[in-house]
Each structure stands twice: as structure tokens, then as C-alpha cells.
Amino acid sequence: MTNGNGSVTTNVNTHRPYLIPMRLLQEWLLNGLMSANIVPPPISVVAAGTFQFPANANKQLTATNVFNSLVTNNTLTATQLNAPNQNLFLLEGGFQQNGKYIVKGTPIANTGITTAQTFEYIPSVASDANLVTALTAIGKTITSGLVVRVGQATNVANATTTGFMVEISQIA
User: What is the largest CA-CA distance in the chain?
Assistant: First the structure.
């Protein structure tokens, strides 16, 4: 701003917000972590697969595109649990009892399915009596694998999906 006599006055506001592109912030964070010698925890995908409904006579879902680095035979299975109105599935594939896993998944639907679908991870804890009962009914325990639920967002008992995809990462 000019004050009328030809001199320029600047008003510096130190509390003024800055508009910085997200990509620049990401690069600063990544370069800052690397330069500070802070090593993020190693996270790696250890298992993934696609499972199709319906389950066979052994309650197993049909698996396609399966990958599993935790077991030598590269298998990952999904078994439907006998839990009324819950649509629970036990994922087995050499998971460690005290392992740290991130379970990501999505229901598979076709264009005829217009209701929202959901994929949820269910913690395997001994205090969950319904889960313990459902696992015991198929000869399994809470340490047998990871449990997920797939169904309608508004009515879990009514699973209208055609299957689900899952990706499991391990934090070392």
C-alpha cells in the first residue's frame, strides 16, 4: 500500500494461512522422514483373493486369484460360519495368533444390486460368545484365522452380494 507520499508500507501477518498443494506436502513429509532417518514400519501384503457365493456343501466359498505368502501351498480359504443372520466368514491361511494385520475388503455386486453392501472385520475375542459358538460349530477356535462379515449395509442378514475381495497386509 502507498501512504500518499510515494513510500510503500507492507503489512506482514504472521498468522496468515498458506495454501500449499497436497502433493508438495506429501513430498515434504516423505523427504523429511527419510532425512531424519525415521524408518516407517514395514507393511507388506501377505494374502489376497476373491471369493464367490454361494458356499459349497463344506461351507467353503469358491476362491479365485488367491495369493498367500504365509503358507507354502499358497492357499487362502473362506468358510461360512453357522451364525444366524450374520453372514460371517472365517479366512484361514497361516495367520499368526498375535500377528498385526490390516484386513481390507469389498463386496462384489452386480448392477442389479441397488442396496449398499458392507465388508467388516470382526475381532476374534474370547468374550464374543456368538463368535466362539459359530467357530466351535465347525471345529475351529478364535485363533484359527480372521473373521469378516459381508452383507447389506441396512440389513446384514440379507446378503445380496455375489462375493467379496480381500487383501490382508501384515505389519512387522
Answer: 92
Measured CA to CA, the distance from residue 148 to residue 68 in angstroms comes to 17
Identify the domain containing residue 49 by its residue range: 43-171
Count of domains forming the chain: 1
Instruction: Return left, alpha or beta for 132; rule: phi > 0 is left, psi -120 to 50 is alpha, else beta.
Output: alpha
Q: Provide the strand spans (E) within the chain.
A: 43-52, 62-68, 77-80, 88-92, 101-108, 117-122, 146-152, 163-171
pTM reported for the whole predicted model: 0.71
In-domain check, residue 17: no
8 falls within a domain: no
Q: Could you report the per-residue pLDDT of 4-33, keeping only the tens digit for each?
A: 667 776 666 666 666 777 887 777 777 765
